[in-house]
Design brief:
The chain is mostly helical and 208 residues long. It has one domain. It has eight helices and two strands. A hairpin with a 2-residue loop joins strand 1 and strand 2.
Length: 208
């Protein structure tokens, strides 16, 4: 029972308490660059999750065999291997999305979310915990990208996943598809998350 609780705790923290984007503020490069449409945000989130899960598993398995002096280069080689797999998969099966994501798929290699979880967690914990942590962080990252890209696509294009959702005399806010729009949306969502966290803390204090 204790093991299940530990695994659940490792998993759930990435969804909210230590959400990579809205709480830890890491992995900002793809967050701001590829979230003009939901399909791009989803693709980047899934690609990052796969890379994080696969690399965390391998590094956790071999954590006692990787010399400390070369651990970072070793992590990067392992991460780069799975990023290459993701990149080739997207090019072969989803060429349009691969083209739209451009250089941001290869840049997953240096995403501080992935490298940070290897250094802070996967290299110090057993495999089952590393998998739970990677899944939680990856899903949390993906959901954040979807939330951000949903707001930007709806307001910037009037569509969601390519389907028209706003009709009438609505004029798309073109700024939402630009870098300033990405910063604006991120700021608003960060504010909303902080308000929710504050409300939850206040409720807990009242119960005590």
């Amino acid at each position: 029972m204790r093991k299940i609780n530990v695994l659940f705790s490792d998993f759930i923290k990435g969804l909210w308490q230590e959400n990579p984007i809205f709480r830890l503020l890491i992995g900002m490069c793809p967050t701001l660059a590829v979230t003009s449409q939901v399909k791009n945000g989803l693709a980047m989130g899934l690609a990052t999750t796969f890379t994080l899960l696969a690399s965390s598993t391998i590094i956790s398995i071999f954590r006692n065999f990787i010399p400390k002096e070369v651990r970072i280069p070793s992590y990067i080689v392992i991460i780069a291997t799975f990023v290459t797999i993701v990149s080739l998969f997207l090019k072969a099966n989803f060429p349009e999305i691969s083209k739209e994501l451009g250089p941001y798929v290869p840049l997953i290699i240096v995403n501080c979310l992935i490298l940070g979880r290897q250094e802070a967690f996967a290299s110090k914990n057993p495999t089952h915990r590393a998998i739970a942590d990677a899944l939680g962080m990856g899903i949390g990252f993906t959901l954040s990208l979807i939330a951000l890209s949903s707001v930007r696509e709806v307001l910037g294009m009037g569509t969601l996943l390519g389907h028209q959702v706003i009709f009438g005399n609505f004029r798309p806010w073109i700024i939402m598809l630009t870098p300033p729009g990405a910063f604006l949306t991120l700021g608003l969502l960060l504010g909303l998350v902080n308000i929710i966290n504050k409300a939850v803390k206040n409720r807990k204090k009242k119960k005590q």
